[in-house]
Every structure is written in C-alpha cells, then in structure tokens.
Amino acid sequence: xxxxxxxxxxxxxxxxxxxxxxxxxxxxxxxxxxxxxxxxxxxxxxxxxxxxxxxxxxxxxxxxxxxxxxxxxxxxxxxxxxxxxxxxxxxxxxxxxxxxxxxxxxxxxxxxxxxxxxxxxxxxxxxxxxxxxxxxxxxxxxxxxxxxxxxxxxxxxxxxxxxxxxxxxxxxxxxxxxxxxxxxxxxxxxxxxxxxxxxxxxxxxxxxxxxxxxxxxxxxxxxxxxxxxxxxxxxxxxxxxxxxxxxxxxxxxxxxxxxxxxxxxxxxxxxxxxxxxxxxxxxxxxxxxxxxxxxxxxxxxxxxxxxxxxxxxxxxxxxxxxxxxxxxxxxxxxxxxxxxxxxxxxxxxxxxxxxxxxxxxxx
Length: 363
Known about the structure:
Blueprint: E1 3-11, E2 15-22, E3 27-34, H1 37-50, E4 51-58, H2 65-72, E5 76-80, H3 96-109, H4 120-152, H5 165-172, H6 179-209, H7 216-222, H8 230-240, H9 249-255, E6 260-262, E7 271-274, H10 280-290, H11 301-306, H12 312-334, H13 339-359
Helix pairs in contact: 4-6, 4-8, 7-8, 8-10, 9-13, 10-13, 12-13
C-alpha cells in the first residue's frame, strides 16, 4: 500500500516552491522546480511512483492551467481560496517556502477551502468579459481626461449633460489659437472614437457568445429579471459555472459577499456592513441591476420581449421577484434608509432569486 503525500505549491512566474508533508504531518521535502509544464510533469511523475499525491496551490493570476495539468496526470489538485487559508495572527514572516508548507499542512488537515475550477470555455469567456470591463474603464478615464484638459484651457460645457450629441458637436467645433493645443484635443478625440468603436464591436461579440449552446438557455432565463441584460447574465453563468454547488441561496449570497458581517459575543449580536468577501465583479453587476427596482414595478416592453417564450412557472417567479424587490426598495427608502443601503439589500435578495431560477427552486 502506497503512502500519502500532501504537496503545497507556491506559484510564481518563473518557479514553484514545493513543500511535501506526510500523512503524519512530517516534512518530507522542500524544494523549487521550474514553472514549466515539462518540469512539473517530470517531478510529479516521480512522486506518483512513490506515494498517492494530493496537491494544493492558491488561486491567483496564474489561473487554473496548473490544476488542469495535474488532474490530467491523475494528481488530485485543490485550488485554495486565498482569503480562507488559516493563518496564525502572530505569524509575521512570509516567504515562498513557508507559504508552500502552510498549504501542504492545511491540505492534510482538511482546512483548505477550494474554489471551483471553471471549464476552459467558461474561463475564456470570463477573461473576454473582464477585458471588456477594462476597456469600459479606459473609455471612462479618457472622457474624464478630455474634460479636465478643457478645464485647463478655461472651457466648461454649460448647455446640458456631457457626451450627448450636442456636446460632441461642441467639442468638434472648438478652435484654439495654439496649434499644439488643437492637436492635443484632436488626439484625445481620436483615441476616444477608437475606444468607442472597440467597445461597440466587443458588445456585439458578447451578444454572439451568449447565443452559444453552453449559454443560450441560462442567459435567456436570467435576462427575464428586470435590470439583467446580456452582459450581467453571461457574466453570472461564466463566473459561477455550476449553480448547484450552492446548497442554499444564502451560500450564493455569501459567495458574492452580499451577506452582513457579524460580531456577536456574550449574548450581544451586532451586524455590520456586507462582507465584500466574495466575487466583487458579480456583486457590482447585481447592485447595478438592483437600481432598476427603485421605482414602481411595471412590465416594460423590453422586459416583456426578453421574457417571451419562457415557461409559465418561470414567468410567475420572475413577476413575484419584481414585485417583492420593488416593495423592499421602496420600503427601505420610506424608512429613511440611504439609497445605497437599500440597493445593496435588494441586490442580496435579487441574488437569491437568481439562484432559485438557476437551480429550479422557484416555490
């Protein structure tokens, strides 16, 4: 019978720090290997000849390629949630070697919390959606830079909102005495037009991705919720993967960081703001969707069009969700809660309805 080895891996771009402990908790080996597929395969093939191997590394910027390679080799691999790895409060020394050893020990003790490893298709779609979000951030910054540049020239648009057709016509008609200032504005506007064209093209690509066989049906269901359109729906499906891994709606809410923090002791129960400990991107998208429930519920033509063809049971569920979330938002505002507090509370309940629709628990 083979022995068991628990392998902790601290991964960086060039190398991997490896620490191995036995089933008794003894340190078997500590070393470094190159972060190359051939070196990883050679090292773990040797380990598998000697023992049954279980491995673990932290989720991070290196993605899930290493986990997939190890699983293909027959090596069990856990990708650990970094924020949930137990650490001693007094431990102030952090090195690659110590991190690898810590991972090996928590893997052996069973205290590691694994993140879900997405399929390659979900991961590529997720990266594409995040790229689109980065470009939208660049677009927003470019608009701010143009307005700030004009302020430095003593110009401020005062005839309404910025970035309307009228405002853009005003920008195009600006003339400066200094040729270099004119050239600067022209370069800014050309860069803005390029970013807007890219964002439009990428949005069309996202719409096409949402029609793929993996995403078409869940995206169609999610778009039935008021405030949820293609980007939010596709992001939810690609980021979460399998909604069935959450046994209850509260677990999905916690995954999004939408549950309140709690500090209770000695018979006193104190709740704070939301934990913000989960998927920040999905949390932001759901909060944006929750703003749509601020006003009295009515089935707009656009929402009705998105719901066309859905099952009657699902339609009843979506209508019930809309009425409940609208009442909650208006009730919180009536009790003089800040709108930001109200929208967060509504986003938490919206996430519960989303989970119910995805797992078929709509009673």
